[in-house]
From TrEMBL:
Physiological role: Toxic component of a toxin-antitoxin (TA) system. An RNase.
Organism of this sequence: Candidatus Neomicrothrix parvicella RN1
Protein name, UniProt field: Ribonuclease VapC
Cross-referenced Pfam families: PIN
Family according to the record: Belongs to the PINc/VapC protein family.
Amino acid sequence: MPLPAKTSPLVADERPKRGILDTSVVIDLDQLEAHALPIEVAVTALTMAELAAGPHAATDSNERARRQDRLQRTEAAFDPLPFNAEAARAYGRIYAAVLSVGRKARGTRAVDLMIAAIACSVGLPLYTRNPGDFAALGDLVEIIAI
C-alpha cells in the first residue's frame, strides 16, 4: 500500500508524494480510487485509536466484525505517526485558529484537530472525506478533500 488548510482537487499527475490519511479516509479506503491518494500514505496513532474504539461502538455483530477487520488490516499495514511534543505545539496553534473563527475546538472535534496537528508537525498534507471539519486551519495544514 502506498505511504507524512487548503482544500484542493487533484489530478493524477499532481499527486503529492506523501500524505496522512484521516480516519474518514481509512474507513472508506476500499472505496477510493488510488489516484486520489498520495503515492505514500501514513496514518496517525489517533486514527488507530478511533479504529480501535469502532468495534466497541457497533450495535450489531456484522458491523462489529467489519470494524474489527478494518482495524486489524490497518494495524498490519501501518506504523502510525505518534502525537509527540512537536504535534502538541502544533495543536496549540490549531486550537487558536479554530477559536479565532468562533468554532469549537473541544469535544468530538479534538481528535480531528490532533490528527491535523500531527500533519502540521511533520509537514504533510492531510487527506479527508470531511474537509469542513478542518475549514478554520488556514495555512497551518494543507487539507485535501477526497
